Structure formats: C-alpha cells, structure tokens
Amino acid sequence: MKGRIFNFNPGPAALPLPVLEEVQRDLLNYKGEGISVLEMSHRSKTFDGIIKDAERLMKEIMNIPDNYKVLFMQGGATLQFAAIPLNLIGNGQFAEYVNTGSWSTKAVKEAQKLGKKVNVAASSEEDNFSYIPTNFKVSPDAAYLHITSNNTIFGTQFHEYPNTGDVPLVADMSSDINCRRIDVSKFGLIYAGAQKNMGPSGVTIVIIREDLLEKSPDNIPTMTSYKIIGGKDSLYNTPPTFAIYIVKLVLEWMKEQGGLEKIEAVNKQKAQMIYNAIDRSSFYRGTAKANSRSLMNITFRLPSEELEKKFVAEALENGMLGLKGHRSVGGIRASIYNAVPLEAVEKLTDFMNKFEKANA
Ligand SMILES: *Cc1c(COP(=O)(O)O)cnc(C)c1O
C-alpha cells in the first residue's frame, strides 16, 4: 500500500494491513449502525458481541481449557506486575521469580514495593541476560512462579517452560503471546499487553485459571482485582472498547492465516532467515545464546556503535523502521511479530548482506 513501510518496532508494533483496512472501512459507520465503535456504549448489544467474540476467539485459537477466563484489563503489563502479587500472594506467603531481563526485574521490584516476599529462583543477570536459565528448583510452597516468556529487550525466549508441579506458573507473554502453540493448561495465569503481538496499546489480556480468580483479597484496588474484573466479564467499568475491537479483528486475521500452527511455521522461517544472516557473517554478532534465541525479537551487534547508527539510518532510507536496540542495551533489534510479513524479513536480510559488503 502506497506510503507504508516495513515496521520492525518493538511495541506498539505492526498490525496486519487487512485489519487496519477493515477498521478504516467501518470507522464512521460500524456495520450500518450509523456510529463508530469509538462512539458506542460498552453496555450496547453490539459491543457485547465484540467483547464476547474476542474472548471466544482467544479460547478457540489458543485451545484454552474451559476452567480458564480471558480478561481484558487496563494499565498495561506493568499494572499486572502489581496485580499478580496483590491477588495471589496471601498473608505469610511468598512467590518466586525467574529473572531473565529488565521486565522480570521490574516485576520483582513491584512485588517488593508492595511489601510482598519474593525469591529469585534463577537469574541470568551475571551473563547480561543472554540466556534462559534451566534446571532450577521451585519451592513447593511458593504462591506462584513468575517467568517472562520472551525478553523483548534481550532477545531471549523460553523454549521449554519450567515444570512447577502444583505451584501455579505465571507468565508475562507480552511480546510472544500467540507466536506459537503452547499448552495453556500448564499455566495458572498468562498476561500480555496487546501492543506487541495482539493489537494496539490500551488493553492487557489476562488468561487466568478459575481457582486463582477466587483468591483476590477484598482490600486491593478494584481495578487490580481478578475476582471483580472477572466476575463482571471485564465490564466492571468502561473497558478500552476500541482496543478490544481491534484485538478481535487481529484474532480473526489469525484464523484466516490458518491459526497458530501456520503462524508459528512462518515465524520460525522469518527468525531463521535473520539468525542465518547473523551466523554466516563475522560482521554481525547475535547477543542471545543460540538455545535461548527469540522468535520475536532478534538482537545483534555490529563491529562499532557508529556502524550500528549507520545501519539504522540506512535501513530507514530503505523503508525499514524500528531497528534500533532498546536504549538500555544498544545494538540492533528486529522485532518480527506475527503481523510483520515474510517480505519484510526478506528485505531486511537482503539489506544486511549488502550493508556488510559495503562496510566490512
Ligand atoms: C513491553 C513489555 C512490558 C511492558 O508493557 P506495558 O504494557 O507497557 O506495561 C512488560 N513485559 C514485557 C515482556 C514487555 O515486552
């Protein structure tokens, strides 16, 4: 489409073009109702259909068992850093966290700030978060084990989830939800800000097992209470209606792509193309250990920071946006979420090869 460029932004990030086109088509007059979804009551029959469809499609695509609920909350993944300990760590209890990067570190700090007891069960901090720890022990009496499924900044991802027995596994999947098939029944709670792989900013998806929903104490803020938000089917107060509508369209788009298996295959192909370009060159250096590499955020360095600056600038001149690494780590990061097409990755790897020849 004229004027559109390839978007490798880490989040908010690329949305599927057919979704944006449908939003545009229906923006002023939604399905003949004479008003926009933006102007619609969250209590209307039409919006009720939209939010129910979004929950139904999430369950269908992810194969979510019946004893789970899908909530649409606000405050981003960051509010979940507080909501999870507030809801799930009871008096005298503690929780365990695996520290695999900046987001895990923030999740730990937020729990501590609320006066909750937290143990770090494993960490890869000593090696600059370049890998995912395995073979660690989980205390059988922990309220939950928290992991960050994909580390958006460091480019690492869990490829096998820890076996936690009866301890609920809680996962921040903000940057890799629905990038591949997972077994939801292994988790007590999954959460994700929508703005990376599911839709626009403003809505946070929480998938929670029903027995955990009941744990929320009565004295926590209403907007963090899974019991209250879940009990009202995410309509306790005004939810982010337009963002939920777009999430629903993204889910429909996922189905049209052939569902998670097809999307996962394309994601693997896309990631492999970039990792191959890194591995066959001595000019590019990947920052994540090979067995912990992410399918979604691919991080690498060039021989100098000057060359990295030049790479980002020339990529943009060639129609590729968002390749600068996170400001806390530098380098290059290609975020290749579901909505980033194969052609974008072909163009990027082609550019990488040319840039290396011209600058090595
Ligand atoms: C982006 C991100 C966050 C922060 O999300 P907000 O919705 O901005 O609060 C948390 N965790 C991970 C893994 C992320 O990628």
How does this model look, in words?
With 360 residues, the chain is an alpha/beta fold. It has 2 domains: 18-256, Type I PLP-dependent aspartate aminotransferase-like (Major domain) (Aspartate Aminotransferase, domain 2), CATH 3.40.640.10; 259-359, Aspartate Aminotransferase, domain 1 (Alpha-Beta Complex), CATH 3.90.1150.10. Helices cover 36% and strands 16% of the residues. The chain has helices spanning 17-26, 45-62, 76-88, 102-113, 210-213, 226-231, 241-256, 259-279, 305-317, 342-359, and strands at residues 6-7, 68-73, 94-99, 117-123, 145-148, 150-151, 156-157, 169-172, 189-193, 204-209, 285-286, 297-301, 320-321, 332-335. The strands form 4 sheets. The protein has a 7-stranded mixed beta sheet with strand order 2-10-9-8-5-3-4, sandwiched between helices. It has a 3-stranded antiparallel beta sheet with strand order 11-12-14. Helix 4 (102-113) links the parallel strand 3 (94-99) and strand 4. Helix 2 (45-62) crosses helix 7. The two termini are 34 Å apart. The relative contact order is 0.17. The structure holds pyridoxal-5'-phosphate. Pyridoxal-5'-phosphate is lined by residues 11, 76-78, 103, 148, 152, 172, 174-175, 193, 196.
